[in-house]
UniProtKB/TrEMBL annotation:
<comment type="pathway">
    <text>Catecholamine biosynthesis; dopamine biosynthesis; dopamine from L-tyrosine: step 2/2.</text>
</comment>
<dbReference type="InterPro" id="IPR021115">
    <property type="entry name" value="Pyridoxal-P_BS"/>
</dbReference>
<feature type="modified residue" description="N6-(pyridoxal phosphate)lysine">
    <location>
        <position position="265"/>
    </location>
</feature>
<dbReference type="InterPro" id="IPR010977">
    <property type="entry name" value="Aromatic_deC"/>
</dbReference>
<dbReference type="GO" id="GO:0004058">
    <property type="term" value="F:aromatic-L-amino-acid decarboxylase activity"/>
</dbReference>
<keyword id="KW-0663">Pyridoxal phosphate</keyword>
<dbReference type="GO" id="GO:0005737">
    <property type="term" value="C:cytoplasm"/>
</dbReference>
<dbReference type="InterPro" id="IPR002129">
    <property type="entry name" value="PyrdxlP-dep_de-COase"/>
</dbReference>
<dbReference type="InterPro" id="IPR015424">
    <property type="entry name" value="PyrdxlP-dep_Trfase"/>
</dbReference>
<dbReference type="GO" id="GO:0042427">
    <property type="term" value="P:serotonin biosynthetic process"/>
</dbReference>
<dbReference type="GO" id="GO:0030170">
    <property type="term" value="F:pyridoxal phosphate binding"/>
</dbReference>
<keyword id="KW-0127">Catecholamine biosynthesis</keyword>
<dbReference type="Pfam" id="PF00282">
    <property type="entry name" value="Pyridoxal_deC"/>
</dbReference>
<dbReference type="GO" id="GO:0006520">
    <property type="term" value="P:amino acid metabolic process"/>
</dbReference>
<comment type="similarity">
    <text>Belongs to the group II decarboxylase family.</text>
</comment>
<dbReference type="InterPro" id="IPR015421">
    <property type="entry name" value="PyrdxlP-dep_Trfase_major"/>
</dbReference>
<keyword id="KW-0210">Decarboxylase</keyword>
Amino acid sequence: MNSGEFRRRGKEMVDFVADYLDGIEGRQVYPDVEPGYLRPLIPTSAPEEPDMFEDILNDVEKIIMPGAASPACTELETVMMDWLGKMLKLPEAFLAGQVGEGGGVIQGSASEATLMALLAARTKVVRRLQAASPGLTQGAIMEKLVAYSSDQAHSSVERAGLIGSVKLKSIPSDGKFAMRASALQEALERDKAEGLIPFFVVATLGTTSCCSFDNLLEVGPICNEENMWLHIDAAYAGSSFICPEFRHLLNGVEFADSFNFNPHKWLLVNFDCSAMWVKKRTDLIGAFKLDPLYLKHSHQDSGLITDYRHWQLPLGRRFRSLKMWFVFRMYGVKGLQAHIRKHVQLAHEFECLVRQDPRFEICAEVTLGLVCFRLKGSNKLNEDLLERINSAKKIHLVPCHLGDKFVLRFAICSRFVELTHVQRSWEHIRQLTTDLLRAEKD
């Protein structure tokens, strides 16, 4: 959609809303539709090719408005999460379907998803241990609980541990910045010998620092054997798994209890939209379900509806699945795949440019849209280069530490980025580098 069409469609949407408000007195306060009305009205999976905007807007009036905002808000979310799960080729256990035990929910961020998974896992292990030993108090169990993540995991994982009041231990990553079975097993044996209770592991697919991938095929079986909840955080990289050539990066997801990634990062859906799936939705509902009288409704015990207020931290929620529906239909699966592939190709173009300059080095394998590189030399030299790059305000880079090295990160993010932008960025970096090295000599 170019800027001209965007203006035209925007005006049409204003008319749509104004017409709705003008005719609001002619609409019923409470819908006639019954729970489950929506799923039979839309396809079971996302379209491969783009749909027409007019068709989508007509479907809003025909399919959504009869159940707006309830049950359409809830039911479209359930179906869209199934659409997205199928795009990723998630195991059936994670999909709601018609009778599945799992399902997806839109959280606000990956941070929320990690926290929800940790709290659900905490409740599950406390109840299991108390059922086995009724004399155990919650406090006695809580003080022994321990969770694990790689030393490359996002800081939000540590924050979830703080909020959940459980110990979180960092597992040293290997030479490719991935968590492996041997390091996790060693930590488990040590902690169990000290009387601690391992209960939760976060595996990261596409770490923030360098887009490394924890080894699910090694870590997953250990989690299952030790009866620990395995949560997968693929906040950035998860979008790429809709492409067959990147789907292998998700191998081992079948061992997980929950999985999360952010369509708002790389799948063209506006913030906020963080997709989370669980194998057993009762694990979430059982941890957070409260039913005061003012929140009760006639269908809550019918088994016909999904009550998402039990799946998340807030009670209120927006109609976020509507923007997923529009994006999936406007682009089609093939359009979204093309978007991902273009960014990955541009990242490799930048990698090639870096490798052609002997002053620089690549610091981590380039798998998706992130390139980690640095100027050969001291950390101070690279810190000075980053200062020059960001002070010039033509491009913006965010650094990281990989081992003891200060590293620069070039991330392909924008929907509008083209090869010319990448080439100009590299020429800009090269010129600033030349200026810096000249100044160092002087």
